[in-house]
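User: I've been trying to design a sequence by hand for this structure and keep getting stuck. Would you show me what you'd pick, starting by listing the structure so we're on the same page?

Assistant: Good idea, let's start from the same input. This is the structure you sent:
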């Protein structure tokens, strides 16, 4: 199982280390054609606008095709890229998740913070860095983890996103859930540790 980490920008190295710790073979993806040789992709945090610039039109189109067919996990800026709709300011999304995401949504005071959220009823440390908020959830989107009233890990089929940085905390469960999703080859509910959370919180925000 080969997992790519998009390595054109942002904190890709922490993802690489985490995935390797969990036994995955990791490839740093810098060229569009490398997407043809991987089974799943992590899009790290960073600056989503910068990702778009570096990708360019052709890179964006290739990535869009990839996320349509293969498992992808986006964190923070990666979550923004995977969204259908992006605000503050608006920018194109890959449309892999039927969500609306507002960039830099916590304002100055809570620009960056470490908080405790809930995944599958268990407390999980969550590192938020100039994080986005998921403001709308489409009907096919499951909530995997929450922080306060906000959905912070979501999943739709084979696509997962976290608005924070799980690669910066010791808890490996979110990356493990993604690897299970990749090894299943499809988005079976059983691949997630927290399908109950998804059932309980269908649409916590408007
Ligand atoms: N603020 C960044 C953006 O809007 C995301 C920050 C992050 O990935 N930590 O793209």
């Amino acid at each position: 199982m080969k997992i790519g980490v998009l390595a054109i920008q942002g904190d890709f190295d922490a993802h690489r280390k985490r995935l390797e710790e969990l036994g995955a073979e990791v490839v740093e993806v810098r060229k569009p054609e490398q997407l043809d040789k991987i089974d799943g992709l992590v899009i790290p945090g960073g600056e989503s606008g910068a990702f778009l610039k570096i990708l360019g039109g052709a890179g964006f189109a290739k990535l869009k095709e990839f996320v349509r067919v293969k498992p992808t996990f986006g964190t923070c800026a990666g979550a923004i890229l995977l969204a259908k709709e992006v605000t503050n300011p608006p920018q194109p999304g890959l449309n892999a998740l039927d969500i609306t995401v507002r960039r830099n949504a916590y304002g100055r005071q809570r620009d960056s913070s470490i908080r405790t959220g809930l995944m599958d009823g268990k407390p999980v440390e969550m590192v938020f860095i100039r994080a986005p908020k998921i403001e709308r959830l489409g009907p096919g989107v499951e909530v995997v983890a929450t922080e306060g009233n906000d959905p912070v890990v979501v999943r739709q089929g084979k696509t997962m996103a976290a608005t924070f940085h799980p690669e910066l905390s010791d808890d490996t469960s979110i990356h493990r859930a993604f690897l299970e999703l990749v090894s299943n080859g499809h988005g079976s509910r059983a691949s997630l540790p927290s399908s109950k959370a998804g059932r309980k919180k269908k649409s916590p925000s408007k």
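That's my pick for every position. To get oriented when you compare it with your attempt: The chain has five helices and twelve strands. The radius of gyration is 15 Å.
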